Amino acid sequence: MTTKKGKSDLLPIKRRLRSNQTPAEQLLWSKLRGFQIHGLKFRRQHGIGSYIVDFFCPERSLVIEVDGDVHHTETQQTKDLQRENHLTSLGLQILRYTNDEIIKNLDGVLKDLTRQLLRRSTSPFPLLTKAGDHSNRPNPLPRVFFEQPTLKVASELLGKVLIKQTPNGIIQAKIVDTEAYVGPEDLACHASKGRTKRTEIMFGPAGFTYVYLIYGMYHCLNIVTEQEQYPAAVLIRGLEILGGDYSPDWPRRIDGPGRVCRFLEVNRTHNGLDATLGNTLWIEDHGLAVFPKQIQTLPRIGVAYAGEWAKKLWRFCLPASTPPKTRRVTPK
Question: Side-chain half-sphere of 324: how many Cα atoms within 13 Å?
Fold first, then answer.
């Protein structure tokens, strides 16, 4: 299944529902649209498999359902339970608000929504956490996030936090540069040469790491995307170290997939890890807002051999952060 469009035959129904939103849905949508809540993107009447949910936040894997009087009936409650069990099995969280709650107490609904969103996120904390400190439990992105179309995953990984366990603690860095490699038709994708021992991991479930060696000396870290049997992945090209607790010997920004892996000490032994488990290497959403106008789309690097495919604007990156200017004080 897919969390982007759901089944194609649901499209006319989704369009009809969007054109006939209830007053409560219209009111809530007016507060959700346009990245108003923590800079997060919400979708309305969104298809997930055979279901259409009222509102969906892909970055938080969060579904919001607006319930009317019909949901009070025993028959509908049974259907709601089946629907909810299916959605939660995909790693999604479901919030329910009634029409009356939204119309009569919108501020209360938004406060509760904010509280729930914060529970689904972890505030940024220093780069290194001491070994044995379990106060911050892993909160990895769920598999459903990586099952989305590769271009979408590559874009939405910007601002997410890549975490790597080491013997001395954990390293955390914001993802600032990615590249998408999409299926066997993409001549820049390794899978274009067929299913091999090297690319086997790309044909499996989303959310696993794909690590390979280039030029006999540089490792590259990728995360597998989309559905099983469709080989696609996102390359992590750049990181930005978070917090102030980091060695002055490290650059603030790390550009290039080889440098990323050298910094993280990632090699072929990290190939095939399940990044959705929160062990060894994983990715979290720490609520670091990224606005669409910040994202640069560029051709991928080092794939000139792919001909026209090399011209695809499938690289997504954020500009380097600039340190705040020091205010000059003129002596009196």
Answer: 3
Question: How far is residue 90's CA from residue 57's CA, in Å, rounded to a whole number?
Answer: 14
User: 């969104």: which residue's tokens?
Assistant: 46
In the predicted model, residues of the chain with pLDDT beneath 50 are 1-6, 121-135, 245, 323-332
Q: What is the pLDDT of residues 106-142, one digit of tens each?
A: 988 988 887 777 655 433 323 333 333 434 578 899 9
Provide the CATH number for the domain formed by 129-317 in this structure: 3.10.300.10
pTM for the full predicted model: 0.59
Q: Where are the domains of the chain?
A: 8-119, 129-317
Token digits for 215?
Answer: 């030029």
How many residues does the structure list for the chain? 332
**Which pLDDT belongs to residue 81?**
84
Q: How is residue 251 written in tokens?
A: 């650059």
Tokens of 222: 């990728």
Contact, 194 vs 230, CB < 8 A? no
Please give the C-alpha separations between residue 81 and each of 77, 222, 285, in angstroms, as whole numbers: 6, 37, 28
Please tell me the class of the 8-119 domain. alpha beta
Which of the 8 DSSP states describes residue 318?
-
DSSP letters spanning 102-115: HHH-HHHHHHHHHH
Do 288 and 304 meet the contact criterion of CB atoms below 8 Å apart?
Answer: no
What pLDDT sits at residue 116? 78
pLDDT at position 189 is 96
Angstrom distance (rounded) from CA 218 to CA 183:
23
Rounded Cα distance between 152 and 143, Å, is: 14
Cα 267 → chain centroid: 23
pLDDT at site 322: 53
Is the Cβ–Cβ distance between 304 and 290 less than 8 Å? Answer: no
Per residue in 168-186, pLDDT (tens digit) is 778 889 999 999 999 999 9
Angle 23-32/106-119 helices, nearest 10 degrees? 50
> What separation, in Å, do the N-terminal and C-terminal C-alpha atoms of the chain show?
69
Contact 315/300 with Cβ under 8 angstroms?
yes
**How far apart (Å, rounded) are the C-alpha atoms in residues 35 and 289?**
9
